[in-house]
Design goal:
The active site is at 344 (proton donor). Its EC number is 4.1.1.20. One of its GO terms (molecular function) is pyridoxal phosphate binding. Helices cover 29% and strands 26% of the residues. With 416 residues, it is of the alpha/beta class. It has 2 domains: 4-32 and 281-408, Lyase, Ornithine Decarboxylase, Chain A, domain 1 (Beta Barrel), CATH 2.40.37; 103-273, Alpha-Beta Barrel (TIM Barrel), CATH 3.20.20. The strands form 3 sheets. Strands 4, 14, 15, 16, 17, 18, 19, 20 and 21 form a 9-stranded mixed beta sheet that branches. Strand 6 (77-80), helix 4 and strand 7 form a beta-alpha-beta unit. It is globular, with a radius of gyration of 23 Å. It starts with a strand and ends in an 8-residue tail after the last helix. The mean pLDDT is 96. Bound molecules: ligand LLP. The site of ligand LLP has 20 residues, from helix 10 and helix 11.
């Protein structure tokens, strides 16, 4: 559930009319709802309230500082994949002791910084990474807390670009090698084994792949216990899907209830989740304005002011995202449109074959744009990235200014 609803034919974000925000801040514009972000985070945290746990929001989904700060104030942890994301967590007032660090290509510099600030855990994705971390920690005279990210080889049944838990994917250490990898880790002087980690993919709409992965992790945990290696936490990654159209992904509570059945007798094992999309996607919309209606033969285009540089999901994954009018009309007739952007690429579209009753100048909202929206935006075609606004009840806060042209070439130099 979210707080973007129609009242009298007008789209509202909490208690603010979206059309007013578009007029005030311009378009394209990302709008987030504080109440929705908090509600989604609590859905995970409350589901786990009777079990030791930590919710580590995957900040790649939406890394705006105001967004992170809201979660930090709720006591959230964070899943990061780069030093940049770590610096964002710190700048937003997040607690480094609640940070887990995923990613296949951590550099020595990133490791050093993460050790300096005292993160909770490195999710190590390969043996060479483990050896590098051991060395960096040794040079600093500390021990690095780790989980090994294990690739459980289960099919997440999602888009191939966002499926990560199959053996052909680049992520994690293969399930067959995991036990041996833990033995190696256990011998390293500057490594402190804390957990077991996996993440099998994103936008999962069924429980069974999560539960299959959990089963495999629990078998590994028992093998590790036989080897005298005790595990403090099990990190099952992120991946819970959201409703873009008519999907019916499980609620966090359903997921947790099914998992806790499997964890009987392991009441001290901390559970960690890394949700990104499930917290952020439906907490945000992107608003765009119709620049032109172009009718050609039997094709109708709604040419809007937001393009693939602002929101790349439809172009990159052929992701279907709902497009709705900001003001519903009583008159006029609807037409089937391809909603396309200004970027010079055929793949620049927000949606195809959408039935809409619109005219030039109207505002449209792309729903579920809070995750992997702004965070994947770029300056392609030398376009300024949009502004971001956080609505909180009847207040609207500009949480990121629209870029200006000078921002785009800052750091560039002419030669003589
Ligand atoms: N943990 C790890 C290690 C991850 O790689 C990811 C996402 C997450 C957690 C969070 O997954 P979520 O709960 O958001 O599904 N750009 C794509 C999604 C890429 C996901 C990458 N990893 C999209 O727009 O669909």
């Amino acid at each position: 559930m979210d707080y973007f609803n129609y009242k009298d034919g007008q789209l509202w974000a909490e208690d603010v009319a979206v059309a007013d925000l578009a007029a005030r801040f311009g378009t394209p514009l990302y709008i987030y709802s504080r109440a929705t972000i908090e509600r989604h985070w609590h859905a995970f945290n409350d589901a786990l309230s009777n079990h030791p746990h930590l919710i580590c929001y995957a900040i790649k989904a939406n890394s705006n500082l105001a967004f992170l700060n809201l979660l930090a104030r709720l006591g959230s942890g964070f899943d990061i994949v780069s030093q940049g994301e770590l610096e964002r967590v710190l700048a937003a007032g997040g607690d480094p002791a609640k940070v887990v660090f995923s990613g296949v290509a951590k550099t020595a510099v990133e490791m050093k910084r993460a050790l300096e600030v005292g993160i909770r855990c490195f999710n190590v994705e390969s043996l060479p990474e483990l050896h590098r971390l051991n060395q960096v920690a040794g040079e600093m005279g500390v021990k690095a807390p780790i989980s090994l990210r294990v690739n459980p080889d289960v099919d997440a049944k999602t888009h191939p670009y966002i499926s990560t838990g199959l053996k052909e994917n680049k992520f994690g250490i293969s399930y067959q090698l995991a036990r041996e990898a833990y033995r190696i880790a256990n011998e390293l002087p500057h490594i402190d084994i804390r957990g077991v980690d996996c993440h099998i993919g994103s936008q999962l709409t069924e429980l069974s792949p999560f539960l299959d992965a959990a089963d495999r992790m629990l078998v590994l945990l028992d093998q590790l216990a036989e080897d005298g290696i005790s595990i403090h936490h099990l990190d099952l990654g992120g991946g819970l899907g959201v409703r873009y159209d008519d999907e019916t992904p499980p609620e966090p509570m359903e997921y947790v209830t099914a998992l806790l059945q499997k964890l009987k007798g392991r009441e001290h094992l901390e559970l960690c989740f890394e949700p990104g999309r499930a917290i952020a996607a439906n907490a945000g919309i992107m608003v765009t304005q119709v620049e032109y209606i172009k009718d050609q033969d039997d094709h109708h285009f709604a040419i809007v002011d937001a393009g693939m540089n602002d929101l790349i999901r439809p172009s990159l994954y052929e992701a279907w995202m709902k497009i709705i009018p900001v003001e519903q009309k009583d008159s006029g007739k609807s037409q089937v449109y391809d909603v396309v952007g200004p970027v010079c690429e055929t793949g620049d579209f927000l949606g195809k074959k959408r039935e809409l009753n619109i005219s030039q100048g109207d505002f449209l909202a792309v729903r579920s744009a809070g995750a992997y929206g702004f965070s994947m935006s770029s300056n392609y075609n030398t376009r300024c990235r949009p502004a971001e606004v956080m609505v909180d009840g009847s207040a609207a806060h500009l949480v990121r200014e629209r870029e200006r042209f000078e921002d785009l070439w800052r750091g560039e130099h002419l030669i003589k």
